[in-house]
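note to self — DONT lose this again. spent like an hour looking for the file last time. sequence + predicted structure for the chain T wanted, 282 res
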Amino acid sequence: MTAVDVKTPEPFTIPCTDGLFIRGEVYRPAETAVGSVIVCHGFKGFAHWGFFPYLGRSLAEARLNAITFDFSGSGIGPDRESFTQPDAFAGNTFSREQDDIENVYDYARRMKIIDEKFGLFGHSRGGGMAIIYTAGHASEVNSLVTWASIGRTNWWTPEEAMTWRKKGYAEVTNSRTGQVMRIDTDLLEDVELHGATKLDIAAAAKKVKAPWLIIHGTGDETVQSSEAERLHELSPGVSTLRLIKDANHAFGATHPLNEVPPVLEKVVQETVKFFVRNATSG
């Protein structure tokens, strides 16, 4: 695959109805694009973390428009790097992230970044969101790639849920910054209300019709690779499973990404080829 020049990433901001914003950028090839890909980050992630800019540029070098963005409830502020919006993070939900993907798609259509169909990428929690969105938008998503995807939206025990509700919030620590980050009961209630219907990742996996590349490291310390195997089993004839021996949750990436590890280069190139192949297959 011959790489083409990439234009300077174009920033964008999409206002949400409650005063929050979706901030992102578009990586465009200097030549006519053959397709487009929307890229979704995961929990405690953001569009400028580690491998995401590298992935965006790699997609654009292959003549794909790549749209990377911060979910409105990511907690990342206008500097696109720091968690300066703790209330947004605390109130984020899976349903909100589905709305964010829809808003990014609508924006990309209005700005003629996407003609109609597009590829969808998700890492970790973003992978689960991409699976759900793809299942519900079969006429729009022409290809799906998930890395280290979660396989369920409910990861807590009944006892933990009870404590969460009684206290009014749960807490997680950001290992990179050391910040203790609050999660309000909005997320808990969202899953209790919709977890068996529109937020059921396993059920969504069965409904995916687009070609789907599932990549997961066997050394993933955050999401076990058995989740990838289960998703693959739920989508026979549609998905392709790639288990990367000993690879961790981020495929060797760190933030900032000063050097591209071989395992990351491998999965990025396979991902890019997959999206190109399906963007140009008619």
